[in-house]
User: Fold these one by one.
Assistant:
Number 1:
Amino acid sequence: MQLKPLISIIVPVYNTESYIHRCIDSILAQRYDNFELLLVDDGTPDRSGDICDSYAMKDSRIRVFHKDNGGVSSARNLGLDRASGDWIAFVDSDDYVKEDWLLDYVSEIEANSNVGLIFQGFALLKSGVESIEQTIVNRRFQEDEFVEAYAYLDRQLKIFGYTWAKIYRADVFVDNNLRFNQSLSFCEDLELTFRFIQKIDNISVINRFNYLYSFDCDVSLARRSHSYDTFTNIADITDTQLRELSRRTGEVCSEVFDTVTDWRFRALKSMYRGYKGKTFTERCRILNTYYSCYYTELKRADIYNGSEKVLVKVLALKTSWLIDLLYRVMFKLK
């Protein structure tokens, strides 16, 4: 009789005392019960760490680790160091999951023994209202289809990078010493997942939406402001992606180019949500540095729509002050 796989669930915890009960309770309510729950208190200043300890006293599947604040990547890495499961899943402490979340993953694991990474969809939770904005079909991708998989998961579904949208085979982390890059504060999950897929030969996508991604929490990662300088991370990350995916196809195919370039625009948009932290001169310097390497690629205006097409044409003029003005106006209007 085949043993049920043990799943390690890693939850970084920081400043979510109003939401951590909901998160932990949803995990404990799983219909699939062969899991361990690793709660990593990342030096939280509120009562979240104490709440985690109280749960650990009641359920032997829960282990709590307290550490100095080092960021979400260091918390996840500590969880990976202490995990003993066959598979690894991540949950953010302000989110929660439905009761079939793990069971649906395990069903695919049992049906596809070679799979190394499994994706699910997710539902958005805004003001207590749940909504699904994706259309997903069950798919399996072999190693020679990973470029297609990347384009589908990232460009179309936009779930490639998020750690909580998937479950990872644990031995891939162990055998390749894979950990989150703690020097990154933006897209660290995208960067880790991209390195992970280089080490496996089978990806599954299942048409399930068991993860509730919350916009209700004030400390949600989706609401956090990042400094300008952190967004220069995306340049190196996307450049690596472009080189590796192009190597697989023998050329910079449209699926690879469009997906990688889309990330660069997303980074720029996110950067301008908190633009007040830098002077005009500093903003222009960053724009010039950030896009100087990508001007040739950005000239492909046919892949863009609306405001992005206008921005590409402005970029062609190499006038960073005008791009800066356009973005500040756009976000002021919003």
Number 2:
Amino acid sequence: MARKISASQLRSKLRQIQNKNRQAVDKYNREVRKVNRKLKQSVDQYNNQVREYNRRVRANQRRIKSELNRLQSRKVSVRYQVITTSAISLNTHYEILNAKEQEFENTHFGNVFLDLSEKENANSLQVSNVLESDSGSEQIIADLSSLSHTEISGDLESISHDLKDRWEGALFSLSPRNPDAARHFCTSAREILVKILDTAAPNDAVKSTFPGCETTDQNVPIRKEKIRYLLKRAGIINNSAVNFVDENVKNVLELIQMLSGGTHEPSGKFSINQLMVIKTRVEDAITYLFSIQEHQI
């Protein structure tokens, strides 16, 4: 015989059911709010990254336009003709690269690569203008400490302790009062760029990846093949990218060659602003090459 339930017991049971339902709804709502908060944080973080990326890109685009206009509006001296020609050539390679922007958008490093490439192009044009300018640059450098400040020592040490020492020694030599400042600085910079390529893209590894690669008379893969190897390892298989990076290294090496007295013109003294722009050009180029060799898929 079924036991009778009093009205008060029934109300108690109903309250328990209602409480459980309310607790379940509250738990569900808390979980929804938690998910929404995380989603909002992710969206906000993504939007912040996009805004920061766009801000940098806009700044570099303005720099490129401004520096290119300055370069094209002034008479180029014989002394810096090679540097100016190289800067214009690099800008042409960048325009070809930038026209294929969509091919890089599906990967994180593809976007970073385009961002850094744009900065390299702007730096190259700026160097040419600053060297041609009597005043050195409109930018005023506060003190000499800016010439010795660097943030890439750790990156270089991860490749070789010797590279770190060479770079810091190169920065130590920079001074407007040192007539051989650019020469000393550039000698070390050349060795660093070559060492990064040779260490990150060993000859045997390059030839194994690209059996038919172009080599020198000594059967060593040429620089472009080493760059192709590094980009492929980073997930970028694009001839425009290979051509731009190779042209960028060539641009820096030609700058180094000229400043090292490799032409018939003496290197001479440089203003602090000129030295700062030269230092930034080389330092950013090292960072650019390091970022490519560091990224592996």
Number 3:
Amino acid sequence: MRDWGESLIQWLPEGTVWFDRPLREDTTFRIGGCARLSVGVHAKDHLIEVVHQAIREGFPWFLLGGGSNVLFSDRGFDGVVILNRLDDLRLTSQDRIETGAGLPLIDFVRFAEKNGLSGAEDLAGIPGSVGGAIVGNAGAFGRNIGEILEYVDLISEDGTVSRMVPDDLEFDYRESKLKYSQDVVISAGFKLTQGNPPLIEKRIEEILALRAGKHPAKGVATAGSFFKNLPPEKPGDRRVAAGLILDRAGAIGLSVGDAAVFEKHANIVVNRGAATAQDVLELTSIMKRIAFESAGVALEEEVRRIGFTEDELAATEIVRAGNR
């Protein structure tokens, strides 16, 4: 792989290829061992070529956008981590926007606001990139990014480039088929609606203020909400917040090493400085156990866990009999 990495250095811009780069430098959790090879990609053609080469060479690879919503193991990643930095952003019509997959999600939200377009407001404050948000069907307040998505351009597992529409992506709550494939989002198109600029701005500022009151401050090391919310108790209701279940179960105040439950939100784990991935696995396993003992529910991770063995992940599971 080092020979392949050396060949990348010959045609990629200087300072965009690294050997044994610590994954904590590229993730919001600031946890994880080293990636055997890391490649920062800022151009569409470069992204396509790097993915094609990884496929041809048979190297394990993982695409990383904003670095949120992911936990890498302390062993790191024995393959290629491709850092997607495609941040193109443009209006394609009066009510349509196209973005690069590596664009920070908040930049997309603010661009829509600037152009008087409504539909993206509820995504304000969600960390990460546009591509990552699509893969995980990110959302808040009962809305998901898949609802405003018009198309995505992808590099498929066989290396071909194609365009897909939302129906192709099998969106569900915090899910899409992209989570379980090697397809890579290059860019995305969104269909929004003409709105009232002052009202759009007001909604965004309300959401940011709400998040600031219960989420960690910018710069605090966290992956975001760790567990998915639960299905509604009856049709028409909103999902049951995992944070509420954990709060009632007494999760706030729990810690393992430097991994701790955030004091204002029981579904957020923070790295207080030197947390390891093992600390997080142990802490979140405890959180799952007390939620089950208290409310009879088996929480499911929203954060993607990469580089762990099946046995390590199995050790975090709880008995699901009686789960309601």
